[in-house]
Design a protein that fits this description.
The protein is about 20% helix and about 30% strand. It has a four-stranded antiparallel sheet with strand order 2-3-1-6. Strands 4-5 form a two-stranded antiparallel ribbon.
Amino acid sequence: MQGSKLYVGNLTYSVTNQQLEELFSAHGQVKEVKIIEGKGFAFVEMSTPSEAEIAKDALNNTEYQGRTLKIDEARPPKNRDNRENRGRSFRRY
């Protein structure tokens, strides 16, 4: 694993940052937890890529609060700035 940030999917909407930090801290030092509100997923950053790999291997496809966790290495965000279409109208008259 190259990075230390993990995508954590299939979460219940009621899960808290503290709960995720406790879950992942059993597998290394947690640097940051960021829950994406109303989406059912979060990002957990571990202190090293090796700790992230350990946490992923230990927790992926395990049950947590009645849901099966889906954990993978986080990918960089997509560039949503589509400069090619900036300022153009797509209306047909």
